[in-house]
Amino acid sequence: VQLQASGGGLVQAGESLTLSCSISGTIVNLDAMGWYRQAPGKQRELVAEYGDDRVRLSGSVKGRFTISRDNAKSTVYLQMNNLKFEDTAVYYCNAKGGVFGQLNYWGQGTLVTVSS
After folding, report:
1. What are the angstrom distances between the C-alpha of 100 and each of 4, 15, 50, 52, 110?
2. pLDDT above 90: percentage of residues in the chain
3. CB burial readout 34-73, b (16+ within 10 A) else e
4. 21 exposed, middle or buried (CB, 10 Å; 0-12, 13-18, 19+)?
């Protein structure tokens, strides 16, 4: 199983970017797909997650970011609007699954840099 993320880049504050992540291979009982990020010197944190029975968004991105999922394409998207300097981070795609929720996969990370 591989997760391939794309869409990062350098933008100015207030601009938008869309990240996408596609799964190649099969995850048994795929449940949630989502995005985490890690800024320099900080811990990795959840940004958004789209599960079978839930959609979660970090409070810091609510109203600005939207997560969507295309199950037919095994792809999850993160539409990021009104980007702020503090959104600068490496964004990691994540997928969870397994009969007992024991499977956890990560993509390679894509850098988002927001200039103020």
Report:
1. 24, 40, 18, 14, 29
2. 91
3. bbbbeeeeeeeeebbbbeeeeeebeeebeeebbbebeeee
4. buried
CA pair distance 25, 42, nearest whole angstrom: 31
> What is the CA 51 to chain-centroid distance, rounded?
12
Q: How many residues does the chain have?
A: 116
Given a contact cutoff of 8 angstroms between Cβ atoms, the answer to whether 26 and 57 are in contact is no
Q: Is 83 helix (H, G, I), strand (E, B) or coil?
A: coil
Q: Taking the CA atoms of the chain, what radius of gyration do you get in angstroms?
A: 14
CB-neighbour burial class of residue 113 (10 A; exposed 0-12, middle 13-18, buried 19+) = middle
Q: What is the mean pLDDT of the chain?
A: 95
Q: Measured between alpha carbons, how far is residue 83 from residues 18, 104, 105 in Å?
A: 11, 28, 26
Model confidence over 32-56: pLDDT tens digits?
Answer: 999 999 999 999 999 999 998 899 9
